Amino acid sequence: KDGANSIEYFPTVRGAKDQSIPANQDITGLIEEFKRKYSDDLLFLEVNGPAAVSGSTTYEESSLSVADSRVFGQEVIVEEAIASDDVLIFQVYRGTDDTGELGYEQKLTAQSLVSGDTLVWWFLNSIEGEAGVQIFSQMLLAKGGLDGPTAPLLVRPSVAGPTVHYVLAKLRTFADTLLATVDDVGVFGSEFEEFSSLAQSSTTSSSFQSKISVTTALKPAGEYRITFNAQATNKDGDKATEVEFKVDGTAQHNHSNGGDYITVISKEDDQWTSEFVVSYITLGSPATIDLDINYRKDDKTARISDARIEIWRVL
Prior knowledge:
Blueprint: E1 13-16, E2 30-38, E3 43-46, E4 57-58, E5 60-64, E6 69-77, E7 87-94, E8 101-108, E9 118-129, E10 134-142, E11 150-152, E12 154-155, E13 157-158, E14 161-165, E15 168-178, H1 182-185, E16 193-197, E17 201-203, E18 209-215, E19 222-234, E20 241-247, E21 250-251, E22 262-264, E23 273-283, E24 288-295, E25 302-313
Antiparallel strand pairs: 1-2, 2-15, 3-15, 4-12, 5-10, 6-9, 6-15, 7-8, 7-10, 10-11, 13-14, 16-25, 17-25, 18-24, 19-23, 19-25, 20-21, 20-22, 20-24
């Protein structure tokens, strides 16, 4: 809670059930991480119906939580005098009476009210409850301070009956949503890596020369999409530049005539051609990727630039 700015933060939630119970000692004993989406507007709910015209009853009630909600405050109509040195005590227990587990307690002082006045009480910390949970709530009045005589506060009943107190709850309902994980949404796009060599490189060798040679990070077992793209040309137009793309030593492009390279023939000097290859490969370990270039005839110049290699998981 950010007290300086009066903000309550509600983090994502995860948890574990009672681990002393054998049935909770496997994966079913864990509560997966989730977030709570609250209603856009604060709701005002007369929990037990509208207020009766008159009468008095004590504020103490055993009930079931009516909704998945977070309560920020409440209003009641008091039916006895409250002095400024009196202490009001609001308590919420889990169970049917005040012998259960105390879940919330707040004290309020400096209130001067007479019978028929409305007591507006905003909680220091909001109270969250889930529909159907058994709770016991009570409001006590300690006369003259905490050491004074203490009894349940007399308040106006509701139209539901003379012993059912009226209360206007100020709350937001919520719904829980599990947070997405890699397992939930699939693995497509994970394990992404990109390698590049953008500067222009050239060679006159008819043997393949390295433009990019990399080894990926360790990859979980799965199917991966590996691509390269680059610009290629040759200095003179009588022979061709050849580009070879290999993964773990295996060429990823094959001609129908048996060649395992891409042939780039430029009839004019500086006539650049874009080349692109996509491969789908099953991996379960680091992969070595090579992008090489040569010139089919010695003493002529092959050139390559803007070379990029990308890999990501698809299955």
